[in-house]
Write a structure and sequence with these properties.
133 residues, alpha+beta, 5-stranded antiparallel β-sheet, two-stranded antiparallel ribbon, 33% strand
Length: 133
């Protein structure tokens, strides 16, 4: 599990109205909560090869219904141990909130390949299937 303060999407996530980030003692630890349900949020990071990262980018830019259709026919990007694309995910423990953002590694830094995407309610399960959460 990744630390929220070390994620590339931390700045965009902290500006989101559906999440609250609290600092612990001496600011060493940060804990994120879903504002709606006060459920703690876990963070994950997954890598993808260039071809699979392109698939993930195209899927994340589709509607939730289109993503569900693609998953139903088996079009799901496969993770890699190390890759040019990084998917950062934050999901609440009660599965009512998920935030994802895809990054591309180039010129020795990660740059956003997609905007921060936030899903709530029943849409979370579709994204959880996509990212294997």
């Amino acid at each position: 599990m990744a630390s929220i303060k070390k994620m590339e999407m931390a700045a965009a996530l902290s500006e989101n109205n559906y999440i609250q980030i609290q600092k612990g003692l001496f600011g060493l630890k940060q804990t994120a909560y879903s504002v709606d349900t006060r459920s703690e949020i876990d963070c994950f990071v997954f890598d993808y090869s260039p071809s699979e990262g392109d698939k993930m980018m195209h899927l994340l830019n589709k509607s939730i219904a289109d993503i569900a259709n693609e998953l139903s026919v088996g079009h799901k990007p496969q993770k890699a141990d190390l890759g040019n694309y990084r998917l950062e995910c934050c999901v609440s423990k009660d599965r009512q909130f998920v935030a994802v953002q895809l990054f591309h590694y180039a010129d020795f830094q990660y740059t956003p390949a997609t905007n921060l995407k936030v899903f709530r309610g029943k849409d979370v399960e579709t994204i959880a299937k996509l990212a294997d959460l």
